[in-house]
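Re: the multi-chain job from yesterday

Posting the exact lines I submitted so nobody has to dig through the queue logs.
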Amino acid sequence: MINKLIQNIQKTNAPIVVGLDPMLNYIPPHIQKRAFAEFGETLEGAAEAIWQYNKEIVDAVYDLIPAVKPQIAMYEQFGIEGLKAFQKTVNYCKEKNLVVIGDIKRGDIGSTSEAYAVGHLGKVQVGSKRYSCFDEDFVTVNPYLGSDGIKPFVDVCKEEKKGLFILVKTSNQSSGEFQDRLIDGKPLYEHVGEKVAKWGEDCMGDSYSYIGAVVGATYPKMGEILRKIMPKSFILVPGYGAQGGKAEDLKPYFNEDGLGAIINSSRGIIAAYKQEAYKHFGETAFADASRQAVLDMIADINQAIGR
Amino acid sequence: MINKLIQNIQKTNAPIVVGLDPMLNYIPPHIQKRAFAEFGETLEGAAEAIWQYNKEIVDAVYDLIPAVKPQIAMYEQFGIEGLKAFQKTVNYCKEKNLVVIGDIKRGDIGSTSEAYAVGHLGKVQVGSKRYSCFDEDFVTVNPYLGSDGIKPFVDVCKEEKKGLFILVKTSNQSSGEFQDRLIDGKPLYEHVGEKVAKWGEDCMGDSYSYIGAVVGATYPKMGEILRKIMPKSFILVPGYGAQGGKAEDLKPYFNEDGLGAIINSSRGIIAAYKQEAYKHFGETAFADASRQAVLDMIADINQAIGR
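And the result, structure tokens for all chains:
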């Protein structure tokens, strides 16, 4: 799947990923109204609004981008109905040949991590049958529990040729509270980065490992160091745009081959129509605003990284 | 909810929690057969088997215990159908007046943690209506992202009078890989423990905080230190029994009032009928085996802690 991600990036010349993190207040009123007219102001109605919103955005941008990253929390908050919309979104994006990164940030002890890995990347056994459930291509994983919480994910990735992005340095303001603390003279995130490089060693695609890392755009100096610590790991970079990360800071996240990083934008794309720059599209053409925002983001990043 | 947890513990004289972590291979063949006869070897069939298994165990033990801890991964691996069984289990246990600790180990940046908190502990807004979705009483949370990933959970807990158990020192073998590393002369888990104590300060129930911690039974020396660092935090202790934690090691997790800790056993209870000691119950009376295992666990722990 890392090979497919790279192919998709090369085909689109766009090292970006669109975060499908729908909040109800991003969704234009006409879509909410239509969904609520059919299902009432219910969880089902909310899920339908999310799905219609996602579908229209995906239809408008899929030819420009290599991948999407649905954030499962935004669906899970609407319970079972929300998770159905998550599943529908994953499946639809895969039909459109997009690589799907499930932003699930799971992680637990061995047997439990195995269950998550099976449910999101692998196949679960039921009697004599096997089923894929959420079936993303990559998922994000939390490393706090150490190797035996990660290994079951790695095992399933090997079997299914899928991949991981392991949290190393997150984009949020208080990420440094634990991640930046010095251990033997090096911040915790570097120690985690070293482990990511090691975990990824025997899961190599053609040029990069299946096992990648999450490093926030908001910490470019750290990105530079981590790039060197994990030369064969793809870096998923959240925090561009709405969270404050700038394109000119992104160069250090890439290798000299112009690969090695994929930059996420969520709100900046899916709710583009709410921004001053794209307001003229209007609410009904929100997906056209998203398309323009994708084009602008690609240009912004490619210029900054000299691609 | 911390007050209710303490009341339930005092009423049952049992500082324990039963982990409802069903694996299909724990479920006796007659239950699987019945479910598959009705729904086929499908995800729905697996979910039905899990639900029937859980229900029979809960019916057999609910009067003996204060709380249950369903591990969501074991349900999530069966996709939407599995999560429906999770929800059914949560609701059923609450009907039985059990405190429900959702072992979900979520944690993300601010707005995303908020979505998880809303979906699992709070109410989500849909138009003019508000809905509770998974509606557990407590959830487990991962601290790797720092305060701004925890705060949205704390805020929802304050509003709903619910609670958290934040991962401090986990029970698994490689938990020390990051958690034990020394920072300013103290292991990371102590730094996290200090934060837990601080986060919990303004969320006090009558005698304990709503904000608790997870500390594995497999590390009693660390438990002793953490007990002192977080005097007002309840400690959820996994790792007793099947994972190797012994009753005599559990004393340091408790305060002098005999409270402050709740010991989890999952496999040891729900799959008791598979153990040598309870084999004589037979597969069809698996729930009676679970009841006996609960009684034995309570006696074992109360004796060890001198309760």
